[in-house]
Amino acid sequence: MARIGIYGSSFDPITNVHLWTASTVAHRCHLDQVIFLPCSSKRKDKTMNTEDEHRWNMVQLAIEENDRFIADDYEMKQEAWKITTYETLKHYKNKFANDEIFFIMGADLLVDIGDGKWGNEELLVKENRFIVMARDGIDMLKTIGRSPLLRNHDDGNTFHLIDKGLAMEISSTYIREEFALDGEPRYLLPESCYNYIKQHLLYK
What we know:
By secondary structure, the protein is an alpha/beta fold.
């Protein structure tokens, strides 16, 4: 039985912190595999800054030297109505029926789920397991404790809370802004992705 983490994000673009986070989670939670899942531009709650093709290519470039990391364009291929985290996790639980599936997310998303901002949040929390990464200014235990939804499904296995030990945040937004301003974000993202963005004149 393998332990598989699903790491969904816009990856617009993927950053070195995305990779460091995935590596830290895989090590700390003994994951056999981390699936990088770029979200679709068809999602109504997301606004992308470049095409799916470019984000997909950059994710593949970024992870190509790590055998534990794989990329999956599953969400990019789905119809807009079917793109929810609940449906996505159901897909992976069916695909890897004999394995343990975990959804990797930041504490900010835990807050949103607890506040009822996600679709199918009751079934999402009831039927799945989560690895939650600390974010500055968010008390994860208090977030769970003050939400009836999260608290009533916290059986000790639902949420694996991780303090990464280093408050390092490099946002994709900042990198995009640096490119737009003709700045130099070279060492904030993989070299292959930096070169790809330069070659294709992205985020200008």
